[in-house]
Amino acid sequence: MVRMTEVKRTQLSHLTAQLDDLRQRGTYFKLRVLEDEQGPVCTYDGRRVINLASNNYLGLCDHPKLREAAISATENYGVGSGAVRTIAGTMRIHMELEEKIAAFKGVEACVVFQSGFAANAGTVSSILGKEDFIISDELNHASIIDGARLSRAKIKVFRHKDVAHAEELLKEVASEPGRKLLITDGVFSMDGDIGPVDRLCELADRYGAIMMVDDAHASGVLGRNGRGSVDHFGCTDRVDVQVGTLSKAIGALGGYVCGSRDLIDYLYHRARPFLFSTSHPPSVAATCIAAFELLEREPERIERLWGNARYFKEQLAAAGFDVGGRTTPASETPITPVIVGDGRRTMEFSRELFEAGVMATGIAFPTVPEGKARVRTIMTSEHTREQIDQALETLTTVARRMGIL
């Protein structure tokens, strides 16, 4: 008699084979465990390291004002909302957060989702149908790709940041029935380059397309007080759908969509992640409100972020690292890839850096194309010059030892 556990192992043996293939390629990884606060220097797996892997751009993950807001909300409202938003889980603090973000972005309304991924996928899949068209940058985030597939719309992909190619695709479908959605990342997460939001807005205006921008890595980084790439290009009135995140520069958890009142009311009724996920704990909503208030009051955080990013990028390039622009798009933001190329070598480089005291995550296929594996680094406002110099020294020493430099 075959035991049930043996049957299960047989039925999932294809997963074991794929994991074995990852091990063979040298790109298999284990999760590193953070043992204290998310900061410029912290402890992973018992080792104290300079952290170049975090999206905590402005150091808000452990800010005292955000801690106070979270504790106060927990004491006043409890630890959970108890339901999805459309049944019994919409608390006054959720509405306050949406109103705060809408005012910050200068739009009519906002809806908060449980994650940035849910915001993108839920929005694209709900506002379009199989008779419609999506014109999407080839390097757009996975959540946009998944949302496009779920929508069942016809997907056309334009070459990265190639506005002329995007126009070719729009011309091809101009006479076709159905809506057209033109979509780009504001900042591309793997290369750190900025999307041509202003020029794509011109195309959307010319061809009557819906314009959508995913500003996850631009929120808190670009624009006035961190209002994002849409504000950076002065396109607030020309972008129909703005997506942002609460889990990177804002320091907490979640995503959001900004736009017209009708767009947001429609998403309340039809966006499946919104309809079928329990709403944020009140502590998270309160934390995010406090973060947006800090963005307004402390613009110097963003100035420090950019000062650190420019210095780090310059020093990496001076040392001879490929930081984009040779075989990949050039980085224009605090995201700076160190291009290695080979996946196995990249993951070995990342592991050696960790052993030497620097946390910098290796990223290989399928997240990036074959031959373009990299160690992705991210600067924050809270890194000191001493920490940056130490990280640079470690990167250079390890790279030379491994023959990368």
Could you please describe the fold and organization of this structure?
- The structure is a single chain.
- The chain is built from 16 helices and 13 strands.
- It is of the alpha/beta class and 405 residues long.
- It has a 7-stranded mixed β-sheet with strand order 3-9-8-7-6-4-5, sandwiched between helices. Strands 1-2-11 form a 3-stranded mixed β-sheet.
- Helix 9 links the parallel strand 6 and strand 7.
- Helix 3 runs antiparallel to helix 13, helix 5 packs parallel to helix 13 and helix 8 packs parallel to helix 9.
- The N and C termini lie far apart (59 Å).
Sequence-ordered SSE layout with sheet pairings:
Layout: H1 4-11, H2 13-25, E1 41-44, E2 47-51, H3 64-77, H4 85-89, H5 92-105, E3 109-113, H6 116-127, E4 133-137, H7 142-151, E5 154-158, H8 163-173, E6 180-185, H9 197-207, E7 210-214, H10 229-232, E8 241-245, E9 255-259, H11 261-270, H12 272-275, H13 282-297, H14 300-319, E10 335-341, H15 343-355, E11 358-359, E12 361-363, E13 373-378, H16 385-402
Parallel strand pairs: 2-11, 4-5, 4-6, 6-7, 7-8
Antiparallel strand pairs: 1-2, 3-9, 8-9, 10-13, 12-13
Helix pairs in contact: 3-13, 5-13, 6-7, 8-9, 14-16
